[in-house]
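hey so u asked for the seq, here:
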Amino acid sequence: MKTSTYFSFYLLFMVLLTSCSEKKQSYASPDPANLSEAELIEKGEYLIENMGCAHCHTPKRLTEKGPVPDMDRWLMGYPASDSLPKIDPNMIESSPWLLFHPDLTAAVGPWGTSFAGNLTPDDTGIGNWTLDQFKKALREGKYKGMDQNRPMMPPMPVFSSMKDGDLKAMFTYLKSIPPIENVPPSYRPPSQ
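ran it, structure tokens below
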């Protein structure tokens, strides 16, 4: 009994001793200015995948496990070749419901009908965008990152407080993926 008491006190002492260290572990992200392009791409891929960008911007394939992203169409947005199923306007106007295309690349709600944009580096996507346009699109919700354009639909305020380094990493990653030519349909206001 005495031995187990001494052993318990010894373990407690060791835990306290190691926790009183002045050395602090830093979990902060490295300064993006010091990251190589490969490191920016890796960080951007992590952010794009974990923030769920592909949920809306990548068409899905139906498998025995349910819908999965179609990696041949990674981040290309709503397929230009697809037609939108007929929608009963009463489903939206008279209720708080939203409707999604089966592969989640289009949505209908009180704002109208929106189609996920092409995020690949093709000219039909973000191929000719600058980093500043990308920042403005995500932070301010400006379509194509331009002041004179309409707002992005639906609004995505969750991105408004993203740090410059994270946006730069995301943009660098998106510029590194294979370009896919695809022009999703234009946004349709509720009256259309």
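Strands lie at 60-63, 66-69, 99-100, 106-109, 112-115. Residues 35-176 form one domain.
lmk if thats what u needed
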